Amino acid sequence: MDPVRLYTREELKEAAVHDLITTRVDSRMISYLAKAADTVIPCDKNMMPAQTRKYNSPASLPTPPTTPELRAVQPEDPVLPTVEQFIRQLVRSSNVQAATLMPTLIYLQRLKNKLQPMSRGLRCTSHRIFLACLILAAKYVNDISPKNKHWARYTNIEGPNYQFGFCTSEVNLMEKQLLQLLDFDLRFSEDDLYNTWQDYLEPMRQKMEDENRRMYFAARHENAIRTAAPQYSPRYYTQYDRYARASSGSVSPPALSYASSSASSTSSRPSSRATTPTSVESVEYTAMYTPSHYGSYEYPTTTTSKGHRKRLLPYEITPEQAMVHSIENRNTKIPRASRGGVFSRVFGSAMMAR
């Protein structure tokens, strides 16, 4: 799934349907189909069809198909397998895939909507209905599907207490009856697939939605970290700072003081005047970078450069550099020559004019 956006509900429904098509048929899907087949029509467990007449060819089948004769279940009659056992046998024998079982459920639901509320079936009606729906789905969805004689062979189940199966003529009759009940309309859409399998697909859709939201917000968080500007606090240590620490014996930087006594005491030291750099631009400096809290960025902890530094603007200069500037200005300031006041300048000019 694409993590850069959140999928809509319709897109998640479509993704769930496509995922189900490629899903392997399991016991959960077989149980879901068996419950749906059992609810199509109420069945009388004490009634079963009489001996079915065998037809030589599909053309000899009666039109419209006739209802088989009924009789009561006798104690000597074999036990009937459950619908779930019957479906499992068909899946195992025919190797049917989920893409064929999905429209089978659609035809079961359509048949349920078309039957009268008072309709009643025999004990094997649910088996017959499911087999007919499966045959029609296999022929409609697949280019090549088994013939009815093969489907009749797939229905044969032998167990310790029962022996069950349909003959080819019965399979042909089931198929023809179901086609007439469905008005020969086997078309279906993707919405039909989701609406019919909604209870089965809802956990899959919810899982996809949770995964999509997790991937989306994880991608947004990672993108925000990648595009965020690095945040660090540069601190500049000049040669004057190193001298101040060495002279004071403290590792903390000297405090900036604006008192005249402090300035005069600092400038009166010979060693201070000897080690004070002549220009801020030519001083050797070391830049210390404190990395930000983003772990994906790595910065050099210490860089040393020699040469001329760019002249800083007043709002860019640090307190330590401001102190260096003030010391330089005091050391290089030319004292103003005394000229004796106004009278000296006037009389001095007159004497020079003579």
Automatic annotation (TrEMBL):
<dbReference type="GO" id="GO:0005634">
    <property type="term" value="C:nucleus"/>
</dbReference>
<dbReference type="InterPro" id="IPR036915">
    <property type="entry name" value="Cyclin-like_sf"/>
</dbReference>
<dbReference type="InterPro" id="IPR013922">
    <property type="entry name" value="Cyclin_PHO80-like"/>
</dbReference>
<keyword id="KW-0195">Cyclin</keyword>
<dbReference type="GO" id="GO:0019901">
    <property type="term" value="F:protein kinase binding"/>
</dbReference>
<feature type="domain" description="Cyclin-like">
    <location>
        <begin position="85"/>
        <end position="180"/>
    </location>
</feature>
<dbReference type="GO" id="GO:0000307">
    <property type="term" value="C:cyclin-dependent protein kinase holoenzyme complex"/>
</dbReference>
<dbReference type="InterPro" id="IPR013763">
    <property type="entry name" value="Cyclin-like_dom"/>
</dbReference>
<dbReference type="InterPro" id="IPR006671">
    <property type="entry name" value="Cyclin_N"/>
</dbReference>
<feature type="region of interest" description="Disordered">
    <location>
        <begin position="250"/>
        <end position="279"/>
    </location>
</feature>
<comment type="similarity">
    <text>Belongs to the cyclin family.</text>
</comment>
<protein>
    <recommendedName>
        <fullName>Cyclin-like domain-containing protein</fullName>
    </recommendedName>
</protein>
<dbReference type="GO" id="GO:0016538">
    <property type="term" value="F:cyclin-dependent protein serine/threonine kinase regulator activity"/>
</dbReference>
<dbReference type="Pfam" id="PF00134">
    <property type="entry name" value="Cyclin_N"/>
</dbReference>
